[in-house]
Design brief:
single chain; 325 residues; alpha+beta; two-stranded antiparallel ribbon; 10 strands; 15% strand
Amino acid sequence: MTPKQLNTLLITAVKEKIPKDTNIANVLMDLLSLGKEAIYRRFRGEVPFTLSEAILICKKLDISLNKLLGLNTLESSLFNLDLSHFSNPVEMYCSTVDHYINIFRKMDPEEYQEVWEASNKISLLFYMKYEYLLKFHLFKWLYHRNMIYSNQEKISYDKILLPKKLIEKQKEFLNTLNKHQRISIIWDNNVFRSLENDIRYFVGIDLISPEDILKIKQELLRFIDDMEISSATGKYNMGPDIDIQLYISDIQFDTSYLYIDSSSKKVCFIKVYELNTISSIDENVFDSVKVWVQSLKKFSVLVTQSAEKQRHEFFKKQKQIVEQL
């Protein structure tokens, strides 16, 4: 990137940070202790901002210099907190999905790879295909962020809309995922119970109507049927190229973990804040997460194309939990 290009990007970022009715030149004059003509020369690109000036501007106005330079934060730090700062939940969700898409795209589908997830809740990998489950997770995230109040009125579950952009982003992710031959999942045995408890809470404060409960319930039962078929056949119904291995754990997990291992890329994720993750490509961190996930198999039963009785009993129990809604 040339100094001129960086200069242009910095000016654009400053304009986005400063209110429209504020004179940008005056702000930068005070910030950098420069005269008006010196600031305008920088605006015109005649003289670029120095590195120290750019750092000071970014620090004071909370601008990411890494992003301006096009640096991948994940590749320059031990951990990356994928904590999206979006007031719009759709933009936040799309940003999260983009994060996964970019990782999978960098992997050669022809090389050996492992995708393992140990989850205590239904994850992004699954609920994006189901409209009402996706709406619920977005709604819950809004509630956590204190964003369900508008003009002192509550925004209930039925007010959440799934726009076309979000649906297209889901399809893009699924198309990317279809290139990967096998996904192995270890489910906490309370994976549906925790979801039921969450739903009951919002019903109790009148944010989900009986009509929407019925829709969520029907979709959950369909999801359980889909997963039972997938675990019996070993083929996940997102696409014919995806093999699935499902393990059911006898113990509960503290959170959800995911790692992707191939000869060209190794990355791991730890779930935080409902829809966000902490990610890392550090070798030691990756190995630690991989060892932890693999250790959970000791407490688990593989129900994919095996353990038919245990598989049937597990999914039957999950249906009973959902039916109680």
